[in-house]
Structures are given as C-alpha cells and as structure tokens.
Amino acid sequence: MHPTPAAAAVTGEHDDDELAAFGMRARIALHVLQVGFGFVEEDLRIRERSDLVLRMNPVHRSVPILIHRGRPICGSINILQYIDEVWAKRVGTRLLPPDPLKRASARFWADFVDHESKGEEKEMAKAELLDQLRRLEGVLGDRSFFSGDEFGFLDIVLIPFSSMFHGYKQHMWVKRCKERESVRQVLPDEGEMYELHKKWYGIE
Amino acid sequence: MHPTPAAAAVTGEHDDDELAAFGMRARIALHVLQVGFGFVEEDLRIRERSDLVLRMNPVHRSVPILIHRGRPICGSINILQYIDEVWAKRVGTRLLPPDPLKRASARFWADFVDHESKGEEKEMAKAELLDQLRRLEGVLGDRSFFSGDEFGFLDIVLIPFSSMFHGYKQHMWVKRCKERESVRQVLPDEGEMYELHKKWYGIE
User: Start and end of every GST N-terminal domain (chains A, B) (predicted)?
Assistant: First the structure.
C-alpha cells in the first residue's frame, strides 16, 4: 500500500502534551487516504524547536507540519484540507463532503473546537469545554459520525480529543472511530490515552 | 447582472467598529463573483444581537453571516470559501487558486491575520501588528496581488484592513485593490476609511 513515502509529517511525540493531538489529526488523515509518509517526532518538552521546524514553519515555529515535495503545509486543519485536495480523488474517499454547505459546517465546527477557548484562564477553559461538549453532542445527533454515515474530516479533528466526550470509553462515536484502522494506527492505546487525557485536562 | 438576490449578507454597519471589516470581506467576494445579495446591517454598538443573528448563529452570536437558501454560513473565512465553492465556476473566476499548495498558503496567512493577536493585551497587539505587517509584505513580494497576478482570496481577506500597510494610501497593492469595482462598492471612501482605521488601531 505504501511503497515509498509521499510526504513527511512533523508532529509532537504523542506522550508530550496536548499539542501532540494536533499531529495525530494529520497522521490519521494520511492513513485514511492511504498516503505513505515518513514521521518525524519533535520533542515538545524542550523549549528550542529543531532546525527542521524553524525552517519549515518560521512564522509559528509549531507542529504539526506536513512536508510534501519539500514544501511545508502548516497547521492541522490546513493540513487536512491539503491532504483531501491532493490525495482524495486517487482513492475515491473524501475527508470533506462535496456539498458546500456541509463543508462550511465542518469547517465551522473545526474552528469552534480549536479557537473557542484560546487565551482564556484554565478554569474558564474547563467550563467552556463542557459547553463545547454539549454543543458537539448536538452536532453529532443520531448520526454514526460527525461527517455523517462515514468517518471524515470532523471526526479526524475531534478523535484525538475524544476524552471530551462524557464516559468517552463507552461513547458509541468513540468506539466506532477506534474500530477504524487509520485511527488505531495513530491513537495511543486505551490505557495510555486515558493517562494522557487526564494529564491534558485534569479529568478523572 | 443581479436580477434577484441569491443570498443575504448579515454584517456590521461599517461605521461601527473593527468587526465590520469582516463583513466587508463577504460583500467584496459576492461582488467579485457577481452574486446578487441582500444586505442586512447589524448595529454592533448595542449589546443585544438581533433575533436574526441569534437564530442564524446561536453559537457565536456574531456577524458576518451569509444566508443562502435559508441556511447560515458563519465566519468571514468560512463564508469566502463557501462563496468560492458555490459560485466561482459560474463566472470562471476563482477566489482561491486551484493549486492545493497555494490554497494551503492562502489559508495559512488568512488564519495568521485573524488569530495571531487574539487574547493579547492592546500594546502587545500593536507590536504584533507591526510584525504581521512585515511578514505580509514579504508574502506579497513583487507580485501585484497577494493571490498572484489576480485579485483573490487573500486580497479580500486583507483589504478591509489596508491601513496596516505602511503609508497605505500610497501602497501600490492598496491602490490596485481600490481600482476594482468589487472593492470600491464595499469599502468606505478614502477619508471615511482613514477615520475608521484611526479609530480601530489608534494610528495616525
């Protein structure tokens, strides 16, 4: 399936911190569209970024970065859209739906998840997290996935943060996502994930 | 050209405050793609939002909102992409370039402009504004427009904030944008714009 890597994903090591979850998005998307890729782990515990990161993302000096044909694509949402535009046709699976209204909705909720609680205090962020959760549950409704009948863009955006969902180990959407090979290959195993989420959010 | 409005743009009144600039983006894009639209101005000086805004954007209760076939699309960048996906083919003009790498770059810089200085103190924001400006000048380089040879997505994102550009009245990119009918129809006239920008940024 992956004879030669088509791209390289520069992400945080998954036991580092919350930022690593953004890199998981890129890696899941590459697996979904069957794109072979090399994987560079950046140590986020140390303050200095590697030369690769400084060169590829001089503006934000952050991961994840997707490197394709030597050119960087920065930011996890941006990377997902790029992956969709470059590789989706080849395998006949799209991450974003074809309908513009549904695409707009997916982008709206992705933006909601990533930008709502920026720059707020920790306590505020927790209250907002609960509010976010309630709203996201409403978006999911009775559907199998956030993207509808099929696992897609918004599922990829959310699954690395699955512990947001109440009783997430039992949550049907979380279970359905974790049955997928693309997700299993990227997400840490259940016990490890639980410890990570506890660390990231202070949840029990 | 515009026999019946195809959509409605709900935006702030342009003399209100900085938020109105985000609505200008939506309106410029609709003009570029020759989409007829109704225009609802929301008074941003009062604290309460209208019933229309509360109904169409219950999550953020913010403008701009594009209403198409009774359905809302919220957030100016999201709106631009929606407009491009729905109406660009019809007129043979695209807001975002076809090349995925260039699309990723345009989205990256749009995100950079909108999210970089959120949640920071005013003074910090000013220093960052200067840094932003320097970086954006680098992106423009020797090209006519941020989108390349043609006025497009990133130009629309930036032109309502044209006063960021040093000596912006004389700035060649600003001049080129203001020669365009789509921009002229939306942006306040020169004197009015100058007063607005002074108010928004405290510039002289």
Answer: 10-91
- The CATH number covering residue A29 comes to 3.40.30.10
Structural domain boundaries enclosing A136: 100-201
The model's pLDDT over A21-79, given as tens digits with 9 standing for 90+, comes to 899 999 999 999 999 999 888 888 778 889 999 999 999 999 999 999 999 999 999 99
Residue B168 shares a structural domain with residue B106: yes
* Domain closes at, from A38, A68, A91: A91
**What pLDDT sits at residue A198?**
74
Contact A108 B78 (CB under 8 A): yes
Chain A neighbors of B111, CB-CB under 8 A: 75, 78
**What span, in angstroms and rounded, lies between the C-alpha atoms of A21 and A14?**
7
Chain B CB within 8 Å of residue A58 CB: no
Q: Is the ipTM of this structure higher than 0.90?
A: no
The string over B175-192, giving b where at least 16 C-beta atoms fall within 10 Å of a residue's C-beta and e elsewhere, is eebbebebbeebbbeeee
Q: Domain of A160: which CATH number?
A: 1.20.1050.10
Distance between first and last Cα of chain B: 40
B103 near A CB under 8 A: yes
The pLDDT tens digits of the residues spanning A100-141 come to: 999 999 999 999 988 765 544 455 566 777 788 888 899 999
Contact B143, B161 (CB under 8 A): no
Whether A81 sits inside 8 A of B135 (CB atoms) is no
d(CA B8, CA A66): 37
| Among candidates B59, B79, B108 on the partner chain, residue whose Cβ is nearest the Cβ of A74 | B108
Same domain for B108 and B59: no
- Subunit contact B59:A85, Cβ cutoff 8 A: no
Say if residues A103 and A160 touch (Cβ distance below 8 Å): no
* A108–B81 C-beta distance less than 8 A: no
Which residues pair with residue A86 across a beta bridge?
none
